[in-house]
Design the sequence.
């Protein structure tokens, strides 16, 4: 119920003159007109508050460009060869013939175990062999003497056969003596512990004066070959199959030996100067995770790569001549997890597009479907508009937007650092 206004013009009293009544009626009409105008002003004010200005969004117009297509695989470096050095004879370590961390060659001496007991064993074996050789010579002379005499019945056949058996026994003793000498010589050589491979030495687990035993469980030292070096990357089997198809179809760059060429990005973002090759022959499949370990091989002449480093292997796939790249800021996910982008159509309204995106190239996505040349993609203000809305547009070139993003990132780093 509307309350009456107290400021309305009063009605003329009963019995007033005609001119007075007309004047009072005019005042009442004027008051009613004023009330009507006030009501219109209130409605206009309400309508103005209900219609705020259209939001402003930033759009980038897509244009085809030439880009280098790459596949980036995270992985870790592993040694080309690793040798755990263990003694093959026991004894006391007399010398350590290397410096920890230095480069050694194959066959280079590393430790010297006390050789004196093994020299004595060799001398004893040589003496035993000499005695056996002398006995063999005596047995041969006896047999050579008995052979003509047994034909003349001057020597019994039993004595002759005994002499022949003695000769054969002496021959066996000589063979055994020679084997003993060779064994003693080998054991003497084992007192000088050498490296089986070329590589870099690690930390020694023994010092001079330590007692070691043959084939002990603890290694004396580990030698690691780092040139060349492996990079192991783990990928789902589907990704490996795609890499194989790309290699067979020629999409991946190959070296002179028909292997896929690989570049390496280090953990600090710099590129390793040497190119490597992807070794598809070095493949193992994990039945637990359904993943495949691929192995790439890189030259490492300066020893820059060390075992256990996190790296990214980059496979060059050639050039795409007319690729569409959309800034990652303009791509979101719908409730079903599909990538979507908001575009401004020719009539100025916003529309949603479901995308097919490929690999990330810098801070952009490679568009494989859903967008086309000339589309205006909203890259800022996507949360302020919905499909069907008509926003105000702030158009930027792709280069200008990239520069803006880089400057904002730099300011954020400075704020965190300060």
Sequence:
């Amino acid at each position: 119920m509307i309350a009456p206004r107290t400021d309305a013009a009063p009605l003329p009293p009963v019995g007033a003159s005609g001119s007075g009544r007309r004047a009072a009626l005019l005042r009442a009409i004027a008051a009613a007109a004023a009330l009507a105008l006030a009501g219109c002003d209130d409605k206009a004010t309400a309508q103005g508050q209900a219609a705020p200005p259209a939001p402003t969004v930033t759009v980038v117009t897509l244009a085809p460009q030439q880009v280098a297509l790459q596949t980036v695989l995270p992985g870790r470096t592993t040694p080309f060869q690793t040798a755990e050095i263990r003694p093959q004879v026991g004894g006391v370590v007399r010398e350590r013939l290397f410096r920890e961390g230095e480069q050694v060659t194959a066959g280079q001496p590393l430790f010297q175990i006390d050789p004196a007991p093994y020299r004595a064993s060799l001398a004893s074996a040589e003496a035993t062999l000499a005695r056996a050789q002398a006995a063999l010579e005596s047995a041969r002379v006896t047999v050579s003497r008995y052979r003509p005499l047994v034909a003349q019945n001057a020597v019994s056949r039993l004595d002759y056969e005994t002499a022949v058996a003695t000769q054969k026994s002496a021959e066996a003793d000589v063979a055994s003596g020679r084997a003993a000498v060779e064994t003693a010589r080998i054991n003497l050589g084992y007192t000088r512990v050498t490296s089986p491979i070329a590589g870099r030495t690690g930390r020694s687990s023994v010092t001079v004066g330590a007692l070691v035993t043959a084939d002990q469980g603890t290694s004396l030292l580990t030698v690691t070959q780092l040139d060349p070096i492996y990079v192991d990357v783990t990928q789902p089997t589907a990704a490996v199959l795609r890499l194989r198809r790309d290699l067979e179809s020629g999409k991946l760059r190959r070296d002179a030996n028909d292997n896929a060429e690989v570049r390496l990005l280090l953990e600090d973002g710099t590129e390793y100067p040497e190119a490597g090759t992807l070794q598809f022959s070095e493949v193992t499949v994990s039945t637990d995770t359904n993943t495949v370990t691929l192995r790439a091989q890189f030259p490492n002449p300066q020893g820059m790569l060390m075992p256990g480093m996190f790296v990214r292997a980059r496979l060059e796939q050639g050039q795409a001549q007319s690729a569409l790249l959309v800034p990652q800021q303009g791509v979101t996910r719908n409730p079903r997890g599909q990538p979507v982008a908001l575009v401004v159509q020719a009539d100025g309204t916003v529309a949603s597009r479901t995308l097919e995106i490929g690999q990330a190239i810098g801070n952009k996505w490679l568009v494989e479907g859903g967008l086309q040349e000339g589309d205006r993609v909203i890259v800022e203000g996507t949360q302020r508009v919905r499909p069907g809305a008509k926003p105000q547009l702030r158009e930027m070139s792709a280069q200008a937007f990239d520069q803006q993003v880089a400057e904002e990132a730099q300011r954020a780093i400075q704020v965190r650092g300060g």
